[in-house]
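#dry-run=false #mode=assembly
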Amino acid sequence: MNDGVDIDDIEGKVSYAEVRDAWYVICTTDELGRSKPLSRKLHRQPLVVFRGPGGKPGVLLDRCAHRNVPLSLGRVVDCQVECPYHGWRYDTEGDCRKIPGLLGKTELPRRAVPQYPCREQDGYVWIWGNPDAEPIGEPYRPPKLDEPGYHTARKMVTAKGTLHAVAENALDVPHTAFLHKGLFRGTGTTNEIKAVVTRDETSVTCEYIGEPRPEGLVGRVLSPSGGVVTHFDRFILPSIAQVEYGIGKENHIIITSFCTPEEPFFTRLYAVVTWRMRFPAPVVRAVLDPVATSIFAQDAKMLDIQTKHVTRFGGERYTSTEIDLLGPQIWRLIKRAAEGRGAKPDDEVYRREVRFEA
Amino acid sequence: MNDGVDIDDIEGKVSYAEVRDAWYVICTTDELGRSKPLSRKLHRQPLVVFRGPGGKPGVLLDRCAHRNVPLSLGRVVDCQVECPYHGWRYDTEGDCRKIPGLLGKTELPRRAVPQYPCREQDGYVWIWGNPDAEPIGEPYRPPKLDEPGYHTARKMVTAKGTLHAVAENALDVPHTAFLHKGLFRGTGTTNEIKAVVTRDETSVTCEYIGEPRPEGLVGRVLSPSGGVVTHFDRFILPSIAQVEYGIGKENHIIITSFCTPEEPFFTRLYAVVTWRMRFPAPVVRAVLDPVATSIFAQDAKMLDIQTKHVTRFGGERYTSTEIDLLGPQIWRLIKRAAEGRGAKPDDEVYRREVRFEA
Amino acid sequence: MNDGVDIDDIEGKVSYAEVRDAWYVICTTDELGRSKPLSRKLHRQPLVVFRGPGGKPGVLLDRCAHRNVPLSLGRVVDCQVECPYHGWRYDTEGDCRKIPGLLGKTELPRRAVPQYPCREQDGYVWIWGNPDAEPIGEPYRPPKLDEPGYHTARKMVTAKGTLHAVAENALDVPHTAFLHKGLFRGTGTTNEIKAVVTRDETSVTCEYIGEPRPEGLVGRVLSPSGGVVTHFDRFILPSIAQVEYGIGKENHIIITSFCTPEEPFFTRLYAVVTWRMRFPAPVVRAVLDPVATSIFAQDAKMLDIQTKHVTRFGGERYTSTEIDLLGPQIWRLIKRAAEGRGAKPDDEVYRREVRFEA
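#status=ok
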């Protein structure tokens, strides 16, 4: 996955840190069946996901306590996951419930495997990033998901880059006019735009003021009649990137990407798009899907290139300008959260205005 | 071979240790011709095997003293192995006997390469694991090999696992009913069996009492008329795994596996099966060969999976139960022998009884 | 390129050292166009080569100062190299000249990338191995290049070996009779030859006295009528290997190999052959080209084998004899130059005579 790069060799030299006490999407409801366990990762830990009694999902460290074989290569039998080597079975709490051949009790603490708290909601299975711990709060709910007049589309993609690089890319405006030229922006004249960045303890938001209606294909679909544009880009701890557009009165679109840092340089994105528009949903879907696929393919390729070069040089050596509006803020939030530090008093009122061309 | 895993990174975290002062099989008599050298490994050291005067085998460190090219890529000329780069030649003692172009003496100590004492017996070439040392004792001889009424079959296979994992797997009863279900065991009802484990300075033996005639295909071939079963599993230092079955009066089968730890996670097995049975040898061979091949393929795949996962986690974290009868004992023997320690006084009388289901 | 071997793990155990204050060939004039940048390496550093104003070449560290993407994957626009991610542009001095979207000044020191001084001469682009430094002296000029009566052929090849291993191989006589048997030497009787090795501060030369006309195919082409042979092998710091032959009065051939150590175990060779001979240049070319290709393929294969084995063993363990005339001297020159040490007084008069068979 990360091509043999050992994060230990470049720790402290890349924008990677692990926020453990938080909720992450580990898979979708549709991916998780009843008879086959699913193999996933969070923060370098292999995990096995399966359904227990009543279909309730369970998530365990994917390593049999006996001889360390991955449980995800076995089967789900009687709502328990079974190791393919000697047939040990575990329930959704991680307790060992069967050891073929052994007479007597099986559920000893040293035979249990670490268990991750989980929730299933809105079509996703979420896990708490700290095994055997008590979760604080509940998973994030994407806005407008079930509101009348709104439609929904979902997509899962992966990128070979750190959570930070992926989230920065998802919320970065300047590269869109260059890398995605013709698809998204950059086909016409430029305007001077004002950006207002505000950051609190758990999120950072950028509001763009004076932005013209987007040009190119996407723009023409969104608002054929023109109209005032409202645009917010947000990062919400630990790993949610959100883009919200309003164009005129009739168009509203929110793209929420739940990012899961599987490995330092491998991130999975579960994107959910909710919208309200003049056009029928099937038409919007038919137009947006190929555009979104193209944009993401270009981004994924660039993230892969960036990651390979960063690891080749043994770490990042970034220079930011004032128009890198969110990247440095995102890293600050992740880093401080990973260190268990809250916001400093002087952070509470962080607000910055920047003018740039787009 | 071991997919880039560096044992130094996880030393002390996996059940791997090198017993140097001992005999190992390095190849079979049939594998070693007269004109082509053979490339093999023991304990991570590349070795070259070739035949010297009178066909007597020689085993040297596979690295030319001059510019470090592998001798095994050259030829055997006049009972000497010749480096393919500059044509330096070595005899079976490791002495340099020819340097093309050089005037004067060639046999200087600094031009010699390390030589491993060797023996050829019973169809195998054995080497002493410590180069340029004096061997103690002679290589092990498989029982009943040339006894009247006994037949023999041989097989060489490799597995991506430590010597310990491979030997434990070869002698482990509980996994057979699960992993090899249908082929070997696990098709019928279970019985309670008593196992008696005894360990001395150089070996550990498990005797099974009350074992029913094996079910499934193998069992029907071994003893169509039923009969009392005797069953011993043995590990003999440094690397011999042996399974001995008697079924009724007429059936006796001994499977001896000489294991060669080429690398920490790559082990070669030379298995020799000797048997006496009611059926003609060709029939036994025809039935046993595909069954043995299937069983070994399943074991090799599982060992590979286990090894990959252990290295992914940076080491083993095993939990054993009382029915892991031999694995922990095998590791104890290897570890102590590698450290050059003999048995402690209180070890001499080690004996344990365990009851389990099979 | 070097198959995952980390030089840091075996530094000090292989004949590899980096002479930074020196000129190296980075590409040929023909390889470098106007619109596409070229990706190359020197001493493990990825470099981007492109043409600036007036076609003058520029060489920069191949890493955008912004988000560390390789510039060599972008385009050359208006004599500047453009990053493919956000469109930052750099001139041949390494200064940032454009940042799309940013209002105001772009050329800040922290936005510049390291620049390597360069020269274009004799069909090659040369760079000074120390970025942002002032070069001392000018690049080496191959002798006889434009002299009347002389012809020229060029070839670029790569080898998986250290600069030292490659240069030693290029200038080593003993292996030719063995590895290249039939192509170059070794087809007839042997003669005793005298070699005189002299070394000064920046080069080492070996003169061969008493050498017969080369046998085999090459010899017959060079001098059908026989004649006195003069033969010099030279290594010139930091990385030039040169073979000079005279056969009779009419034949003179000089093979100069400019070696570029891209990585510890990956060296690029730019060879230029200049000659004066009885035969028409097209005939010489037609005969020499396939022979040179065969010889180099054999050498490249052997260097690859040698490198793999050296890294497998964690370093070199060479033994040299008196007929390893140049190898140890080459390493001494490179090592001392890399350490910035000049020749000791007692080195100035180094001279040695050796007799050997060829």
